Amino acid sequence: MNSEEFRSFAKAAVDYIADYLENIRNKKVLSSVEPGYLHQHLPQEPPQEGEPWQSLLQDVDRIIVPGLTHWHSPHFHAYYPTANSHPGIVGEILLSGLATISTDWHPDNVCVALEQKVLDWLAKLLHLPSHFLNTSPGPGGGLIQNAASDSTLIALLISKTKKTSETAPDAKLVAYTSEQSNSSVEKAGLLASTTIRLLPTDEHGALRGTTLLRAIREDIASGLTPCSVVATLGTTGTCAFDDLEEIGPICKDFGVWLHVDAAYAGAAFCCPEYLPLMKGVEFADSFCFNPHKWMLVNSDCSAMWFKDVTHAEKVFDRESSGTHFWQIPDVRRFRALKLWFVLRVYGVEGIRKHIRKQVDLAKYFEGLVRGDCRFEVCRVSLGLVCFRVKGDDRRTQDLIDRVTQRKKIFVMPYYFREKLVIRFVICSRFTEETDVLVAWEEIKSQVEHNLDG
After folding, report:
1. Which residues carry this modification: N6-(pyridoxal phosphate)lysine (predicted)?
2. 8 A C-beta contact, residue 378 and residue 387
3. Residues 309 and 373 in one domain
4. Whether residue 35 is found in the same domain as residue 121
5. Biggest alpha carbon–alpha carbon distance for the chain
6. Which of 227, 97, 239, 96 is nearest to 156 (CA)?
7. How far apart are CA 31 and CA 407, in angstroms?
8. Distance (Å, rounded) from C-alpha 29 to C-alpha 92?
9. Residue 256 sits in the same domain as residue 382
10. CATH number for the domain including 136?
11. Poorest-confidence range of 150-154, 253-257, 297-301, 391-395?
12. What is the pTM of this model?
């Protein structure tokens, strides 16, 4: 393929993406095909001769798109957002085309430098403590990881190394998190060979200091060595916030590493009105949130900061490296480029406007639910509303099944305080008040069948 053919191919692909995003409102949210579908439409062997690129784009539309779940649909309310924006897409195209792989300062100093710069911008945007900045006078700093789950694993590996160097290599380590935390925390514990204790939460789904203190004292009495706590700001199920003001001092007193996972909710801290939700963040040894969840940067882009990077360097840095490898891979893509594009095109106020609009839409949906006596609202937090059909869980499950089968909207179940609830999240940047109303009418139409039965 020569340059002219590439121009035509790239332009057609960009036009296709633009048309897809413009028309996504008209598509059924869920995949409309069954397993095995792709094998029926593609040959068993690769093509012997090259094909024209036009036929490839036609097959994307004919074969691929019907089998996709449309995560950016304004009617997708099933999970915390997978972010997207036109600047992010352009940044993704450029970083692929420039083919830059960040290793150290010598070959790609601008790649490393831009990542450090945009992570500082991001930390300031979120009102994080200044000791997290790459430009801080202390040993703090940040970089981009693949996902929040990677960040959790990295925090556990660092805390394990730090604690065993302070105690004994054969110490029996234990880490703590809430029963509401993401399942990736338990997975990270397996990979880091560290026992994870899931601690009970209060009536709001938050981990409290008294619960953590009791668990730490019990484990020390049993001969275990507490090494880390993974606290969550915005849990996956109900967007609950662990109490860092209570947890932080306990971690400090016992020399326990405190990692804060704010994968979804962290984006909200760009708005001053939500800063009380992260009181106590100054106690965190590491902090992570995903711009690819709610800040318009397409995946993958997960930001992680350290109060003191020297602990990470002891685990991950190589002697031959000219920069920081506070991560598992030896190299990383130029993901800072798409973050840079989004921050510059939207600006601080544009991002705040985006967050506030989605929170307002969730409040609008909450009002619709509360206005119908057949439903009850169980929890509301930022862009998430948890609700259910009054009565037995079977009514709520039947509603979920009916809505899922129709594929006009998509929601997800969750058990909160021993009750089955429906999680309705404002996910898409395309969602407007009319889309929320469409979703509510769909839910009402199916619950009417539910109650009639």
Report:
1. 293
2. yes
3. no
4. no
5. 71
6. 227
7. 8
8. 24
9. no
10. 3.40.640.10
11. 297-301
12. 0.91
Q: Kind of pairing, strands 302-306 and 286-289?
A: antiparallel
d(CA 63, CA 372): 41
Q: Are residue 225 and residue 356 in the same domain, yes or no?
A: no
Of 69, 87, 111, the last residue of a domain is 69
Cα–Cα distance measured from residue 264 to residue 366, given in angstroms and rounded to the nearest whole number: 20
- What is the overall mean pLDDT for the chain? 89
Q: Are strands 173-178 and 195-199 parallel, antiparallel or unpaired?
A: parallel
Torsion, CA 119, CA 120, CA 125, CA 128, rounded to 10? 100
Residues 6+ apart with CB under 8 A from 329: none
Q: What is the CATH number of the domain that holds 12?
A: 1.20.1340.10
The pLDDT of residue 419 is above 70: yes
Question: Does residue 109 form part of some domain?
Answer: yes
Position with higher pLDDT, 317 vs 33: 33
Residue with tokens 């393929």: 1
Main-chain dihedrals φ then ψ at residue 280, nearest 5 degrees = 95, 0
Indicate whether 87 belongs to any domain: no
Cβ partners under 8 Å of residue 221, min gap 6: none
| Average pLDDT value for residue range 242-256 | 97
pLDDT for position 38: 83
Quote the percentage of the chain above a pLDDT of 90. Answer: 57
Q: Which domain holds residue 248?
A: 101-333
The C-alpha atoms of residue 427 and residue 73 are separated, in whole angstroms, by 8
User: Is residue 338 in some structural domain?
Assistant: no
| Residue type, position 94, single letter | L
* DSSP class per residue in 42-90: S-SS--SS---HHHHHHHIIIIIGGGS--TT-TTB-SSS-----HHHHH
pLDDT tens column, 128-147? 999 999 998 889 999 999 88
Pairing between β-strand 286-289 and β-strand 257-261 as defined by DSSP bridges: parallel
3-state helix, strand, coil in the chain (%, to 5): 50, 15, 35
Distance CA 366, CA 380 (A): 8
Alpha carbon of 170 to those of 190, 313, 409: distances in Å?
Answer: 17, 22, 52
Residues 144 and 206 in one domain: yes
* Whether 85 contacts 346, CB under 8 Å: yes
Is 368 within the bounds of a domain? yes
Q: What pLDDT does 383 receive?
A: 93
Please enumerate in sequence order all residues whose Cβ is within 8 A of that of 66, keeping only pairs 6 or more positions apart, or say none.
31, 32, 33
pLDDT at 70: 83
By CB atoms closer than 10 A (0-12, 13-18, 19+), residue 33 is middle
Helix, strand, or coil (residue 370) = helix
